[in-house]
Amino acid sequence: MRGTTVGAISETASVSDEGTETADVSRETDPPAAAGDDAVAESDKAADALANVTVRDDAVPETDEDTPLARAVAEDARKREALVGRELPRPAETRILTVANQKGGVGKTTTAVNIAAALAQGGATVLVIDLDPQGNASTALGIEHHSEVPSIYDVLVDGDPLSTVVQPCPDIEGLFCAPATIDLAGAEIELVSLVARETRLKKAITAYTQELAEQGSTLDYVFIDCPPSLGLLTVNAFVAAGEVFIPIQCEYYALEGLSQLLRNIELIRDHLNPALHVSTILLTMYDGRTRLSAQVADEVRSHFAEQTLKATVPRSVRISEAPSHGQTVMTYDPNSSGALSYLEAASEMAALGAEKSEDRS
Ligand SMILES: Nc1ncnc2c1ncn2[C@@H]1O[C@H](COP(=O)(O)OP(=O)(O)OP(=O)(O)O)[C@@H](O)[C@H]1O
Ligand SMILES: [Mg+2]
């Protein structure tokens, strides 16, 4: 069944590289149009206010939900009540997900580290592989990644075992990271002349999971954070993974280039990794007050109904501040609406994975 999934997506996906299909997505804003940084700061203030509200185990505070802000606060309270501190179901087998979108700045790294952190907080053992020379995922997880640190470059180019580069994340138990250093910028070219250049990451992950199994431990999830390109590093990630996780920013041109990404995934599936399929899509930087966000979300859901998570991630100052403190928003401000949204997305992902494990058995 996995083999048909991507084919079905590309048949239904009528998005074009020129973005013509998205051209009818208007830039209109529902009145009152309070979008922008001030509005984002306002909603973060609301989250702060919420953090000081004590929510009893058996009750969600009664609020007048007539205003958007009150609705957002009440919604966050509901999420907090339902999700915080809950153990999440763990998959029967290690799920390896490549977080990809060749568009830059759409929230790939932010999504990879925050979903990974939320799953680890929910009791899973999670490895984040930073495959982007920018090293943003390593920074966000508080992991050293200056040029002397053993890194994913040593694994890919020199064939070092993954176990020699993996570091525990200081803030969250069960969360680990294989960091990227600036050396990785050269790997794209160095890999070209190496033997089995497309399968080097896959081999390293397989050897690592076997090594862990011999010690009696397992990984529940591996997230591979990709650079915004479709070079050999991303190909290695696609070959190593079973699933592709695509964050989509709720902005104009959001779907531009998506059909090219899907075509590349199909090529990888046909030639290098028959198991690869798009399992998860997450709408990021969603602004419920703008018609544009709602239209992009509708468009994505109409093409990818099964894959798109119900949870959406709002634009949030807390999310963008967290990496400068070497943290994910899950520890930087666990009560913020951004953290709660990532927790909601992670629990949805975990629940769907558990359902699929049951289907297989
Ligand atoms: N929900 C959000 N609210 C506010 N800012 C966000 C949100 N998600 C991401 N950002 C910010 O947007 C910028 C781009 O995000 P991120 O680095 O995760 O994207 P990316 O797709 O990994 O980028 P690249 O293509 O360069 O790897 C960052 O500064 C990040 O802090
Ligand atoms: Mg990134």
From TrEMBL:
Residues 1-43 are annotated as: Disordered. Pfam families: AAA_31. Residues 95-277 form the AAA domain. May play a role in septum formation. Belongs to the ParA family. PANTHER family: P-LOOP CONTAINING NUCLEOSIDE TRIPHOSPHATE HYDROLASE, PARA FAMILY PROTEIN CT_582. This is Chromosome segregation ATPase. It comes from Knoellia remsis. The lineage of its organism: Bacteria, Bacillati, Actinomycetota, Actinomycetes, Micrococcales.
